[in-house]
Amino acid sequence: MPGPLDLSLLRRWPDVEAPGLVAADAADRLILDESAAARGGIGPGELVIIGDAYGALTLGASSDGAVDVRVHQDALSGEAALTANAQRWLPGARFTSMPLGADLVAGARVVLIRLPRSLDALADIAATVASAAAPDVVVFAGGRVKHMTLAMNDVLRGAFDRLDVTHARGKSRVLTARTPRAVDAPVPRAGREDGLEIRAYGGAFAGARIDIGTRLLLRHLPADTPGGTSDDPWIDFACGTGVVAAAWATRHPNVHVYASDQSAAAVASARATIAANGVTGRVVVARDDLLSARPDASASLVALNPPFHSGAAVSDRVAPRLFADAARVLRPGGELWCVWNSALRYRPVLERVVGPTRQIARDPKFTVTVSRRR
């Protein structure tokens, strides 16, 4: 082996790149260090990595000799970054990207986890590992101390009999869990609001409820607009749990909808939401970074509640990227209906990237605008 990979070489691309945003940090290095001895005693296919943001854990372990690694990353951009980093820096790495489920962890003896900020997401991960991994599995779950809470310890103790906590290093810490308990595999959480059934796996934005921004958007979406056919579906962009798509399909019995999100948890949640509302035949849910599967100038209506986080970092560079792809997909005269935190002042960006923009509604926190494609 050529020796450990220099993790500072890794890039975040195609995710947002900017000064201060890194592809690997002290938590990744601590997880690799704490798990090194355990990883040295396992065979091919017995290592699983969950939540590896841009490939630091997968490629770090692979440079140490791990082969046939199974990987789950919630963000599709993370999968793309891992692939790009591997091609550039470790082309011999052998790994497979998989959904979160029993097949991901079956027979795993070591699991590395980059701790999610959502306790529900951690609960789903812990239950998946405990219910399907090998009985002697050891889990190394780490993160930055500023993003960790004692409640994370409680979540892991709910799925494992033994939990040890490392000393902090580089403002990071690792939780080590052993002896899985008999727990059930995770199922989506259920809620009902405004006549809609909502389903949410851990980590999906807003959980099994309608967030206040989406609620404002739903109150003002147009009832009569072009499109809505199978060839020109209305698009729920960055769909989250699929609330807008489900609302459109239930309010308009003949409308076809295309819902898209790059988050695996969001897509699984949206599919469950659509099924719970009985509109599966008219709604397509896709996992996609942006709207890359949609042709140029092919849509009459797009709705968007854009995220403003890139991983754990708040960034004003996320939404403009989505605005630009919505503009690409819209026909001339097509409309982007968008809700955004008023403090972010997106209207000039929408005017520049999409076209003439007017305010539709505003409350103390959020603004709804419609932008017409030039």
TrEMBL record:
Keyword list, A-Z: Cytoplasm, Methyltransferase, rRNA processing, Transferase
Source taxon at top rank: Bacteria
Methyltransferase small domain location: 197-369
GO-annotated molecular function: N-methyltransferase activity; nucleic acid binding; S-adenosylmethionine-dependent methyltransferase activity
Residue ranges occupied by any RlmG N-terminal domain in the UniProt entry: 10-179
A biological-process GO annotation: methylation
Matches recorded under Pfam families: MTS, RLMG_N
Alphabetical list of InterPro entries matching this protein: DNA_methylase_N6_adenine_CS, RlmG_N, RsmC/RlmG, SAM-dependent_MTases_sf, Small_mtfrase_dom
Gene3D superfamilies in the cross-refs: Vaccinia Virus protein VP39
Protein's recorded name: 16S RNA G1207 methylase RsmC
